[in-house]
Amino acid sequence: MGMGFVVGILGVLIISHAAYCTIQYRAVLKITEEELSRPPINVVMELILGLILCSWAALTVLGKFLSILPDSLENSCMHCLEVAFLLFLVLITLKALIGGKTLLGLPISLF
C-alpha cells in the first residue's frame, strides 16, 4: 500500500465521519424541534478536507500520466498494435455476419 492509497482511505473515513455527524445533528434537531438552517461548520470543514484528500489520492494512486499524442514515445507499444489488429478483425467479421457475405471465400453462418 502506497502513501496515496492510505491518504485515500483517510479521506473516505473523514467523509464518512462527516456524514455520521450530520445524521446525529439532524436527530438532535428533531428532538429539540428546531429547523435545519445550515450544516455545522465542523461538518463542512470535514467534507472539504475529505474531498481534498480523496482528490489527491485519486491523482496519485494511478501513477504517471501518459501523453495522448499519437507520435509520442510513451504510446509506441506493440501491445497497442495487437489490440488494434484484433479489433479490426472483429469489426470485419461482424460486418460479414451482418451483411450475410462471405469472409475470405468461406461461408459464414450465425449457427
From TrEMBL:
Keywords: Endoplasmic reticulum, Membrane, Transmembrane, Transmembrane helix. Coiled coil: none annotated. It comes from the Eukaryota. One of its GO terms (cellular component) is endoplasmic reticulum membrane. InterPro entries: MMgT (IPR018937). This is Membrane magnesium transporter. Component of the ER membrane protein complex (EMC). Pfam families: MMgT. Its main location: endoplasmic reticulum. The chain crosses the membrane at residues 42-62, 83-104. It is a multi-pass membrane protein. Signal peptide: none annotated. It is found in: Endoplasmic reticulum membrane. Belongs to the membrane magnesium transporter (TC 1.A.67) family. It comes from Ilex paraguariensis (yerba mate).
